[in-house]
Amino acid sequence: MPDSNNAIELKGVTKRFGSVVANDDVSLSLKKGEILSILGENGSGKTTLMNMLSGIYFPDEGEIFVNGQEVTIRSPKDAYNLHIGMIHQHFKLINVLTAAQNIILGLPGPQRLDMKSVDEKIDELTKKYGFELDPEEKIYNMSVSQKQTVEIVKVLYRGADILILDEPTAVLTPQETERLFEVLRNMKNSGKSIIIITHKLNEVLEISDRVAVLRKGCYVGTVETKRASVESLTEMMVGQKVTLNIDRPDPVNPKPRILVKNLTVRNREGLLALDNVSFDAKSGEILGIAGISGSGQKELLEAIAGLQPIEDGQILYTDPKDNIEDLTKKSAQEIYQMQIRLSFVPEDRLGMGLVGSMGMPGNMMVRSYRNGKGPMTDRKTPADLSKRIVERLDVVTPSIDTPVRNLSGGNVQKVLVGREIASSPVVLMVAYPVRGLDINSSYQIYELLNEQKKKGTAVLCVGEDLDVLLALCDRILVLADGKVTGIVDARTATKEQIGQLMTAGASKKQEA
Amino acid sequence: MNLIITFIQQAIAQGIAILFGATGEIMTEKSGNLNLGIPGIMYMGGISGLMGGFFYELNNDNPNKWVGVLCACLCCAVASAIGGLIFTFLTVTLRANQNVVGLALTTFGTGFGNFFGGSISKMAGGVGQISVATTASGFQTPIPGLSKIPFLGDVLFHYGFLTYSAIIVSLIAAYILKKTRTGLNLTAVGESPQAADAAGINVTKYKYVATITGSVIAGFGGLYFVMEYLGGTWGNNGFGDRGWLAIALVILALWNPANAIWGSLLFGALYIIDIYLPGLTRASQEFVKMSPYVVTIIILIITSKRNRPEQQPPASLGLSYFREDR
Amino acid sequence: MKKKKVIHMVRRTGISTAKAWSIRIIAVLLALLVCAFVIVGITGANPIAVYGGIIDGAVGTSSRTWITIRECVFLLIVAAGLTPAFKMRFWNLGAEGQILMGGLATAAVMIYLGPMLQDWLLWIIIIVVSMLSGLVWGLLPAIFKAYFNTNESLFTLMMNYVAMQIIDVAIVFWENPKGSNSVGVINQVGKEGWFPSMFGQQYLFNVILTAITMILVFSYMRYSKHGYELRVVGESYNTARYAGINVKKVIIRTMCLSSAIAGLAGAMIVAGSSHTISVSTGGGRGFTAIIVAWMSQFNPYAMIIVSLFLVFMQRGSIQIATDYGLNNNASDIITGIILFFLIGCEFFVNYRLEVTTIDEEEAKA
């Protein structure tokens, strides 16, 4: 029997995308007037689950109850009618319009706009909950946190009683986070029910009444926050150590290849993405890079590859003949011209690493098209290479000329990794190499990385699955909020230890 | 003195057709559709209105000029709406490329206008050029009474009703865009259909309605030209590049129909000023005629350099939107 | 329980060439059917006679055939020139103006240098100068696109009309005879600078020039390093940066090539066919070629088929119009109708419609 004290109750909700089960038989509830955190690692199915409440997805199985009534939510409009409002990670705002105009967008009402009364109503809401917002400010003049405020007010203006916030603090500074939490508490006190999706433990402990934990699409359990600790939550989140059968040869004769000193990088919003990062990567070893998403992993690899402007610091490269080259502030083009064999498998495979509309040979040429004299490209070598990659990595494709966009995720990744290792790199950087891949393909990729390691390549591997990092890597560098919080030996470190390092930066900030 | 009056009258006469076109194109572009078929649609609207008047006069021995006007306006509106419908159906429903469809529509519309303009009289069994004197006189009737005022009457009240309609339509369009819910939603559709869709706005409906309405407005520019300006006749390609000037004016007006009013006056003045400036050689006259386009290009460069969001083309201009491609 | 039919559009993941072409052929047949209705509606003639007239008009005599080939070749060379720009996703709508500038340069060479130089030297100068002046016309929008991200479709579009006014200025100086407001046939007596007749065919030189250009352009696109770079830029700026490609340089270089070829087309029209210059020298080919290039999906063979078909129908309908005492613009209506069908049918090549039945009750909830 559904409890009418529950604002939301999910029963046995399952959602599949093709063969991937994003949510498997999840049942949880949100009490009226509470703040519930949904905690889980990347890819644990938090956002998918919430999207079923906001009408973006429709569950394959299971029931949803709102205020004790069973409901069907097929569109965002249905969700609004049930007074459910979701604030997505990617804001849906119109830049040239004001906050107030964005807030009333698409709402019914008299043709003639009375912005004055809209502004008053917005001011009322902001005052009530303690926001700071000028309704007449244009969105393009706003900071990320102000834009978030607009999204929240937009949802409140439409009468939402149940608010779902997807990773709201990912884009905020600590001060802004503090202010947001203040507002959330005010909303709770006036009777709103709130779900906040996050993977930051300290925030969970600070803001929520209860915590529901998801792991790999499955519901682990719900605990009262006051009975939880960082340790207990970490354990729930990362689970028992899974023994993976990944080979790990010992590094042979490791020599430094990449030396990063005091690297500082700002992202496009002007926030610090990397803050004084220093480390080295050695030949013949795999250096894992762990961290919650958006901690600076992307910027780190792109800075080394010459795709990210550097504010401060130094990147040095040592070639196999022990010549040292300075890569700081070199563009990708210049690094190529210096004949440095630096390979990079970026996170955005089709948007950055590959050309979706071309077949395999065309994609091989991304690296090699300049080879050979004269204005014409060599087309035979890339075609031969494509055939070799198809054979060696079991790429499933109708023909090597099929546009890679039409291949499955695993095969796309094999094409990309295959190309990057074909140039016998001295340094190989891979970001989330097995994301979206099935088990078999994943193991093939691990083997390839090990093979490179044995050849003496310095491998940098950004990953999200701690079990894999612990089994595959020699050392693991942990990033938190753009800072290095630790570099541990993967043979002796534990999951809990890394989990705590991942959130350490934020905890320290809070203590300060 | 008389020269100045004539100059102002002529500048306005030149500007009105462009103003209709620009206002229509602004409404269209605000929905994210870059309709390069507008020049063709203006031809279609012009010739269809002319044909409406022609067949009315042909079938009535004693035609009334206001009935003729009504027939012309109706035919013009229907034909231009069909032009807009072809564009939206192909680009929104069938997801074809906007530039390609627009250019094809201009080829079609221009041919449509010139073909019927040149042949309709003959096809209807008459001889010589098409001419609708009675209907045109309705379009050319100045405001009674007021037009008799010296100077002011000549400058301000000397024109047919379409001239005033053009200005009123632009003002209404500006009002809708700035002050109404529909205008706000329309702006959202042109800026970010994804965000508009998420806010519960029916993107497809807005694109259809805005583009077809815009086409009808533009079509009246063609009608104005053949009726009030030419007095109910057709000259092959006589409409010239006014359709493209209308598209240029959209840029000059920074997507605000109210700006298009003075902009059309400026373009109209530049179009004819060579006749009124003493001492110009023929070559420099042609250079003057180039100026609207050059001014537009300069505006385009300056606004893209300054990068002020309000002065940019609608962010999704020219792009198709399909929800499932998110 | 009520059942309701809903039509879904589903993007095809792949389609066989045979199926794609059969969709296109159906579209052509439908277009011809609609054109027949229009023509019959206007002329009241027997449709079979009308299509007979079209064939007669397009290829009925040797000279008509050559005119069809001449027009087809003009479309092809412009479409080939546009291909690199479009592959880079740069909307060059300025081919019309680039043609005019090429034609203007050609006319200038013929007028000023014609009496002084040998023919072969004139031809070389014409080809070089026409390409250069077309290039300048495309270079401006490209620079502003590369550095300020200025909207290139509007910019190139406006450049067309600036070019037309420049032609008008030139006509003032080159008027012949005085007061005619036209340039007249340039070097009518000595034919200085006229492209030569080959094997007695006036237009064969143009055909060869176009064939060479097309082969070069498509080899450049497929086999050269530059061609590869521009295709990557067209796909994604991010991938281009990743591959170490200088995006700005590629944009400017590619537009130079694209507009130079349009300029060459201007030389072919002026020196190889009309031997005069006017604002209608471009004749809308700069726009029609955009449609040809786009609809052929940049495939050179498809380009030949599409432009042949379009020109065939145009020439044919001009003949029909003459036969029935109507004006030439009928051909634009026919072209327009055919284009609408061809453009529309691409949807059915890329998507298929699926009808699914759902419960009405559920749909409401």
Short description:
The complex is a heterotrimer of chains A (512), B (326) and C (365). Chain B has 326 residues and is mostly helical.
Number of domains of chain C: 2
Q: Percent of residues of chain B in beta strands?
A: under 5%
Gyration radius of chain C, in Å: 23 Å
Order of helices and strands of chain B: HHHHHHHHHHHHH
Number of E-state strands of chain B? 0
Largest sheet of chain C: 2 strands, antiparallel
Q: Low-confidence parts of chain C lasting 5 or more residues at pLDDT below 50? A: 359-365
CATH architecture group name of the largest domain in chain C: Orthogonal Bundle
Helix content of chain B: over 70%
- Could you list the spans of chain B in which at least 5 consecutive residues all have pLDDT below 50? none
Q: Strand pairing plus helix content of chain C: what structural class? A: mainly alpha
Briefly, what CATH class of the largest domain in chain C? Mainly Alpha
Largest pleated sheet of chain B? none
Count of separate DSSP helical elements of chain C: 14
As a whole number of angstroms, the C-alpha radius of gyration of chain B is 20 Å
Name given to the CATH architecture of chain B: Orthogonal Bundle
Shape of chain C: globular
